[in-house]
Design brief:
The complex is a heterodimer of chains A (438) and B (463).
Chain A: H1 2-25, E1 33-42, E2 48-57, E3 60-65, E4 75-78, E5 83-86, E6 88-93, H2 121-124, H3 131-136, E7 140-145, E8 152-160, H4 166-169, E9 170-180, H5 195-228, H6 240-249, E10 255-259, H7 262-273, E11 280-284, H8 292-298, E12 301-304, H9 319-329, E13 334-336, H10 347-359, H11 361-366, H12 370-375, E14 393-396, E15 407-412, E16 415-416, H13 422-430
Parallel strand pairs in A: 1-4, 1-5, 6-7, 9-10, 10-11, 11-12, 12-13
Antiparallel strand pairs in A: 1-2, 2-3, 5-14, 7-8, 8-9, 14-15, 15-16
Chain B: H1 2-20, E1 26-34, E2 40-49, E3 52-57, E4 67-70, E5 75-78, E6 80-85, H2 115-120, E7 124-129, E8 137-145, H3 152-155, E9 162-167, H4 170-180, H5 187-221, H6 234-243, E10 247-253, H7 256-269, E11 274-278, H8 286-292, E12 295-298, H9 316-322, E13 327-329, H10 340-349, H11 355-360, H12 364-370, E14 387-390, E15 401-406, E16 409-413
Helix pairs in contact in B: 5-6, 5-7
The chains are: A alpha/beta (438), B alpha/beta (463).
């Protein structure tokens, strides 16, 4: 009888354990009114506040400061000794569009065709990608998910990393138009075209792009003429590709041009200089430090990384780490990005290297918060801790650029996010796999 | 003439020997010394003499002629060891057969690769230069000290165990089954390729030994007919060396089931010293790995770049460590090799492994896996003077490697760090117009291990 009792207790314990495990997997976010107190608040735009308070009401930040007595029905989060930062923005990633890069059927960032301004990353953004929770628990709350193929790849989308539909996650559906210009210098040692062939091919491709741009401008002017006074005019045929260019031509949506080498960057600056009324950003810019003054003069922002090997064998080992700082020093607005998909979470460390090698912590922090927000035209909603902005933020036990720092709690659009992901769940399951038999 | 030849041979030997034995002396004063095996020692000096750590203690005096480095407020850590690299391999994959055990990286070492200097600037001192993962049983590896500016021979880590690359899963089945229409196309086939070759190797050994014995007897007595020769076969010789424990196996693998498979096979053939490389799903079979004494060498956080790493976790290393598996963190990538200290830091972040255990994963543990832990991997008297001076704690993102010593000789000094560190400058490379913009080797290259093997898959990439 006693034996049976032990058996029953054991079974009950077992079921209890199972239930707990499942409860963790289905943990829900919390939403409503929160008061985060006692923290060092890194607002990014208004300095650092010691022993500060942040009030969250619904989607928004209702208060940031240290001059308030919290009363009322706020859920209290004591963050004494902790730090609060705005959620980091990874401004260049395949997250949501690419699940497994080596499995083509899961890759949705490269449509067929040279000119695809009407392709929207927003449309293919998968809210249920396993990489999204993995990314957001590390403090990246918003990304620019970008298409990448052809000359005009499509529109990249600014997406929050919480939600069950692209609609509820989009900060801005048309974050930027992504473009790849042809290379005027050939592709490197494996490119065996002659100089003449390279020049011919470059001219042909750049002419195609210029041709497309003038058609788009013509379409835009035709449509404008019709819209301003339709009377007596036939409505021009609707063209989805041309239509998609209109918000770009007007400068409302920026154009991101990928360019890494010195010459590619100079080519991009030259080409962009010929386009009137548009806004341009460079992505990549591995050799930006070589032509930082030219980029600054052109007024182009830059999306860049740090963790790569020097682009030329004779370059100093630390140039990739120094590159963002050198560009910022020349007056370029710099955003530091992951240029990665499943490890978008490492954006903080990309920035950490820039901080350590000359950019400084404060400037590097801007490069993952307010700078990309401004470049993508969403600084009224995200990128800093200010009243009225979206409550995208995280609480950490230290400097988030340090790999030893823990990101303890993330909020996205006011939702207190479960700090779980496939990675943490596998840890919970397998740390002591056979515990039940012990 | 003969004399001249002898002189020449002697001269060459001398040069090679000098390169191989270039050793230095230095006294590093007043640092926090991360010994790895004996805790962190504050305000401590380390004396390296003629390449060997001679003394660790307080207020040590520099012997005459030995340079002193003031490391007050700084940290000294053993040089980082990368158990998985293709940094300066000339060729990586001999991909035309599922088994190429006879192949070796020995002559595939480029001692002039500037990436060696970049790795030194990241605090690395030893790498395991590996064959690629195209074949189930690939080529033998070379353990190299990053003695930048020496020769092929000058880089070799004397006394290191012989190693060989195995590979399971997608890579060999893609290259050979999918690309070439031969076994293995599946994980079933991979097992049989291993077993068949071990069996053939054992049969070969039996026959070869019988033949040699019969031949010796015939040569002694000269009676009867001479035995039918059994030709020497290098591939089978190497496979027998594996079975006899003379070669450590480093097996590219990802999924838990294939890891279990190879452990079963190895148990059947009595093979004991082996490390699973990458092993993204090793955490799922951590108890089995621990039971078999199998080791692992993993990425800190790479995942999802191919299907067989989709169900993996950045907590892998911490789970393995907690289960008593000797684990290292490797790079398999020339950029990651520059920042392995922070890859180790991520093991603390993901799963609360202690800082010292995390540091072991880039020092002592890879040393054990390469059979060089008697020489390197910790700061102990009698071990090699392969140490790095860091500006702060090496796991902090703000800490920079300031000096890197190999055998007590300084190969990197941040205060004397010219831009162009190339040794072998190809006059044909005019970079000025960006025309020869170097391929960015970097970031997430999911198939670094498949270098040289893509051509085999180009006919059949649709499947």
């Amino acid at each position: 009888m006693k034996k049976l009792n032990i058996f029953v207790v054991a079974i009950a314990l077992l079921f209890g354990l199972t239930a707990t495990t499942q409860a963790q997997i289905t943990e829900k976010p919390e939403y409503g009114k929160f008061a985060i107190t006692g923290a060092t608040i890194h607002t990014v735009t208004n300095g650092t506040i010691e022993d500060g308070v942040i009030l969250i009401e619904g989607e928004k930040i209702a208060y940031v400061g240290n001059n308030i007595r919290v009363t009322g029905d706020y859920k209290r989060i004591d963050a004494t000794g902790k730090h609060v930062y705005p959620g980091f923005i990874d401004g260049w990633t395949g997250l949501g569009l690419v699940e497994i890069s080596a499995v083509p059927v899961t890759v949705d960032d490269a449509e067929v065709g040279q000119f695809n301004p009407n392709m929207y990353a927003f449309t293919a953004f998968n809210p249920h990608s396993a990489a999204i929770p993995v990314t957001r628990v590390s403090g990246v709350t918003t990304v620019l998910a970008k298409p990448r193929s052809g000359s005009i790849s499509g529109k990249a989308a600014v997406m929050d990393l919480w939600g069950y539909s692209p609609d509820s996650m989009a900060v801005k559906k048309s974050g930027a138009l992504v473009m790849n210009l042809p290379s005027s210098t050939g592709g490197g040692w494996w490119d065996n075209r002659s100089e003449e062939e390279i020049k011919k091919q470059y001219d042909r491709q750049i002419n195609e792009i210029n041709d497309f741009m003038s058609k788009a401008r013509f379409y835009d002017s035709m449509m404008k003429a019709y819209e301003s006074d339709p009377s007596g005019k036939t409505k021009p045929d609707h063209d989805p590709r041309m239509e998609a260019m209109r918000e770009v031509l007007s400068g409302d949506v920026p154009v991101i041009i990928t360019a890494n080498s010195e010459q590619e960057i100079l080519d991009a600056i030259e080409w962009a200089g010929q386009q009137k009324g548009m806004n341009f950003i460079l992505a990549g810019a591995n050799e930006g430090w070589r032509v930082a003054d030219e980029i600054a003069e052109a007024g182009m922002g830059v999306l860049t990384t740090t963790l790569y090997t020097p682009s030329r064998d004779y370059d100093n080992y630390q140039r990739p780490y120094q590159n963002p700082g050198l560009m910022a020093e020349a007056g370029v607005k710099v955003a530091i990005v992951s240029d990665d998909t499943e490890n978008s979470r490492n954006t903080a460390f990309e920035a950490g290297y820039a901080a350590a090698y000359g950019m400084g912590t404060e400037e590097a922090l801007k490069a993952v918060t307010i700078n990309p927000a401004e470049m993508f035209g969403v600084a009224d909603k995200i990128g800093s801790l200010e009243e009225g902005k979206q409550a995208n933020l995280f609480i950490s036990d230290g400097d988030p650029f340090e790999p030893l720092t823990n990101i303890e709690q993330v909020f996205i659009k006011g939702y207190k996010i479960p700090m779980q992901s496939r990675h943490s769940q596998l840890y919970d399951e397998f740390l002591d796999r056979d515990a039940v038999n012990k | 003439m003969k004399k001249l030849l002898t002189l020449c041979v002697m001269a060459v030997t001398f040069v090679v020997t000098v390169h191989a034995q270039e050793k230095g002396s230095v006294l590093i004063k007043n640092a926090t010394v991360i010994t790895v095996t004996n805790g962190d020692l504050e305000n401590t000096d380390v004396l390296i003499r003629d390449g060997i750590i001679e003394n660790i203690g307080k207020d040590l005096r520099a012997p005459r002629g030995v340079e002193t480095v003031d490391a007050t407020g700084k940290y000294v850590m053993p040089g980082i060891i990368d158990a998985h690299s293709h940094l300066n391999g000339v060729d990586i994959n001999e991909a035309r057969n599922p088994v190429t055990a006879e192949v070796t990286m020995e002559e595939s070492v480029d001692p002039n690769e500037v990436g060696i200097y970049h790795a030194l600037a990241g605090g690395a001192t030893t790498i395991h230069l590996m064959h690629g993962s195209a074949n189930v049983i690939g080529g033998q590896g070379e353990t190299l000290k990053l003695r930048y500016g020496t020769t092929q021979d000058g880089m070799r880590f004397e006394g290191a165990k012989r190693t060989i690359k195995f590979a399971l899963g997608e890579n060999p089945t893609r290259v050979h089954g999918q690309g070439n229409g031969i076994q293995p196309r599946t994980r079933m086939g991979v097992e049989q390729v291993v077993r068949n070759h071990f069996d053939e190797a054992l049969d070969y050994k039996r026959k070869r030994e019988a033949y040699l014995e019969a031949k010796a007897e015939y040569d002694r007595g000269g009676r009867g007919t001479p035995p039918v020769p059994v030709a020497e076969n290098l591939r089978y010789e190497v496979l027998n060396d594996i079975i006899e424990g003379e070669i450590y196996v480093h097996c590219h693998s990802y999924r838990a089931d294939e890891i279990l498979m190879l452990m079963r096979v190895f148990n059947d053939y009595g093979i004991k010293n082996y490390t699973f490389q990458h092993a993204n799903e090793a955490f799922k079979v951590a108890p089995e790995l621990a039971k078999n004494g199998a080791m692992t060498s993993v990425f800190s956080d790479w995942w999802a770049y191919k299907f067989e790493v989709y169900y993996s976790t950045a907590y892998n290393a911490s789970i393995l460590n907690a289960n008593g598996v000797i684990n290292s963190i490797n790079s398999d990538n020339n950029q990651l090799l520059r920042t392995l200290n922070h890859e180790a830091a991520k093991v603390v972040r993901y799963g609360n492994t202690t800082v010292n255990d995390a540091i072991k994963m880039i020092t002592l543990h890879p040393a054990i896996q390469l059979g060089i832990d008697d020489y390197v991997g910790s700061i102990e008297e009698g071990k090699h003077g392969d140490v790095v001076v860091w500006s702060g704690h090496p796991l902090s993102i703000y800490s920079l490697a300031e000096m890197t010593f190999v055998d007590g000789k300084k190969y990197f000094d941040r205060s004397n760090d010219p831009d162009d560190m190339r040794i072998d400058i190809d006059p044909g490379t005019d970079f000025e117009d960006g025309a020869n913009f170097r391929e960015i080797v970097t970031r997430r290259d999911e198939d670094a291990c498949l270098q040289d093997a893509f051509i085999l898959m180009q006919n059949n990439t649709q499947n």
